[in-house]
Design brief:
32% helix; two-stranded antiparallel sheet; 4 helices; alpha+beta
Length: 146
Amino acid sequence: MADFHGHDQHGRDFELSSWRGTPVLLVFFAFSFSSVCGDELEQLRDANYLFDAAGCRIVAVSTDTSFVLREVDRQLGLDFTLVSDHWPHGAIGAAYGAFDDKLGCDRRHSFLIGPDGTLAWSKQADLPQTRDMHEHLAAVHYHFPV
């Protein structure tokens, strides 16, 4: 899978390849404060301890700025990494085929990346459709049993 650089919700540099050696659930979402995206982020927050127990880290990516991601993190009490795909706008999503250039945002695509950096599983959903994060957790357990 493509490596990428960005900034997390705290403005710190983030590089996906720095997490090699552990599975990563890479979740693209459109807009932090939309009802569907908020529901998905809350599902991830509520299940994060289960992903963590399975040895999997969560990285959620949106075209929102780091400032917006910091606020959604503060309001929802998230305990995982949010990465801004704001500038160059949509470049991370485009590298994964997740950027919608007509809407100007990342679509609901999920990628489970193995410890060696290869794709283990992926899922796509339409923008108004909420992804089931329990299905994502099942994929983690299937591909990387503890």
